[in-house]
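hey so i finaly got around to running the thing on Beta-lactamase superfamily domain protein from Lyngbya aestuarii BL J. pasting the sequence first so u can double check i didnt mess up the copy paste, my clipboard has been acting weird all day
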Amino acid sequence: MYLTWFDSNSWLLEIANKKIFIDPWLVGPLVFGNQAWLFKGEKRSPRPAPPNIDLIVLSQGLEDHAHPPTLKILDKTIPVVGSPSAAKVAQELGFTQVRALEHGSTYFLDNQVEIKAVPGSPLGPTTVENGYLFRELETNFKAYYEPHGYHDKSLQQEAPIDVVITPIIDLALPLIGPIIKGTKSALQIAEWVKPQVMLPTAAGGDVNYEGVLVSLLKAVGTLEDFRSLLARHNLSTRVLNPTPGERFEVPLEKQPVSVA
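ok and heres what it spat out for the 3d tokens, dont ask me to read them lol
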């Protein structure tokens, strides 16, 4: 299994020799609702699209997950799997193979990778977006992605999960509290599914951020703090700190097969 982090929530997952682009952001600014005064992110170095993408996976319909400027430059024949709101964005931008995945539903990529949608981040009173569980059918290696730190209890039934990509520090607003759930939520999922490796997402990467919201956001915790927390709870999970744009192999050991 290989991963490349493209800043923020954007990842290229290579599993079973398939390239899965998760929440891609490559070019253009990241702005919500054209309100650049409130929040704006700009990459210091725009990145080219990875070649030979087999699937695009979108967790949410918001701009930091279904990023319109990036989706516009990608090949519209690439299949897309997304939450219902994200699938709608992809369809409106001209993608020709779009599958909206409800919670608990699965999608099979060339009978080599199973992708299961699980409940993720709540948006408003009625909408819960997607997290995803990726399983390599030949080896049974599993990777899980949820970008805001909301983890459904059903994931306990999927344990062990080898790789978890989720925030591990909190991003909080004064008087409101965390808008990105890191430390406690990340510890909880680590205890539930006993991952071999965890990787932080929703961190900045090689990006300049500005705007009123950015000036108010406060990061709480560090990677070293979280590593220490895992050790205090007798968890052997390794926490990796990827470099934006650099492809790396995830160090995994084959899980023992239980015999009934």
